[in-house]
Structure formats: structure tokens, C-alpha cells
Design brief:
By secondary structure, the protein is mainly alpha-helical. The chain has six helices and no strands. The protein has helices at about 5-15, 25-30, 35-50, 65-75, 80-90, 95-160.
């Protein structure tokens, strides 16, 4: 029979995913007798509610971008002592928060740089297209001229054709 997991059971299992325990989903699944899929669903639901639940035993490096950003936001208004306490609870170091904060700022700059690069490439592409169109027009004129000369040559040959050749 399947056990019905109450909110308190779910909360207890989710706490085991957090620091300092920081159990991986596969460990919890075998310890608690809950399928990994259920645990992944619970973790994802908690994350959507703003609860930081980093990936198992990977440490701060395993935190996804969303969790890192949430940690930066949560700790932004904290003083040094509160930041240290926050970091102890989450199992990270203050330098992780500083790195993630810098990465968040750089992400905004990266988007700006990408937009500048795209605009530059678009401008170069438009110029290249314009040059190709000019080249195409020049070649079309030359082709039309060659066709006209060929027609004239055939007419001249028809006019000057020797009647005895017929």
C-alpha cells in the first residue's frame, strides 16, 4: 500500500535536501522509500515557491542559476553578520554570494554586448546584401547587352546573307 505523504512528511524530507544535511535525491529515495520522481517533483514545487533547494551533494557549484540568483536577492540587504549566518544555513561561503552577484551583473552586461554585436552584424549583412544587389544589377545589364548584341549579330547575318547559300 502507498503511504499518503502529509505536508509535514514532505517538509521533513525537503529539509533533508537542505543544508547542513544536503542529501541527494537518490539517497533520500532509498532512505525514505519514496520514488525519485516524487522527490524531484517536491523539490521543483518548493523551488517555485522560492525555497532554495540546491542539487544534492554537489555543493555550491551544483546550484542552478535560479537558486544562485535567489540567494543573491535574499542576502542583498543583510549586513556582514547576517550574511555569515545566512551562508552557514545554506552551506555556502560569502565569497560564493559575491561571485554570484558579480555573475548576475555581468549577465545583464553580456546581453547588452550581444545586442551590440548583433546590430553590428546586421549592419554588415545589410551592406553585403546591398553590394550583392548592385553586382547583380550590373551583371543583368551586361547580360541584356550581350543578348541584344547577339540578336543584332543574327540580324546582320540575315541581312548580309548571300542569296546563293540558300
Amino acid at each position: 500500500m502507498h503511504e499518503i505523504f502529509t505536508g509535514t512528511k514532505r517538509e521533513a524530507v525537503l529539509k533533508k535536501m537542505m543544508r547542513p544535511r544536503n542529501r541527494s535525491i537518490s539517497q533520500l529515495a532509498s532512505e525514505e522509500g519514496i520514488s525519485e520522481a516524487t522527490l524531484y517533483n517536491w523539490r521543483n514545487e518548493a523551488r517555485t515557491k522560492g525555497i532554495l533547494l540546491p542539487d544534492g551533494d554537489t555543493g555550491p557549484e551544483g546550484w542552478n542559476a535560479r537558486d544562485k540568483f535567489a540567494a543573491v536577492l535574499e542576502s542583498a540587504s543583510l549586513n556582514e553578520e547576517e550574511t555569515a549566518e545566512y551562508c552557514r544555513r545554506k552551506g555556502i561561503y560569502p565569497h560564493h554570494l559575491k561571485l554570484w552577484h558579480t555573475a548576475c551583473e555581468a549577465a545583464n552586461d553580456r546581453e547588452k554586448q550581444v545586442n551590440i554585436k548583433l546590430k553590428s552584424e546586421q549592419k554588415a549583412n545589410r551592406k553585403h546584401i546591398k553590394d550583392l544587389e548592385k553586382e547583380l544589377q550590373r551583371k543583368e545589364k551586361a547580360l541584356a547587352k550581350a543578348a541584344a548584341l547577339l540578336v543584332l549579330q543574327k540580324k546582320v547575318q540575315a541581312i548580309w546573307k548571300d542569296p546563293e547559300d540558300e
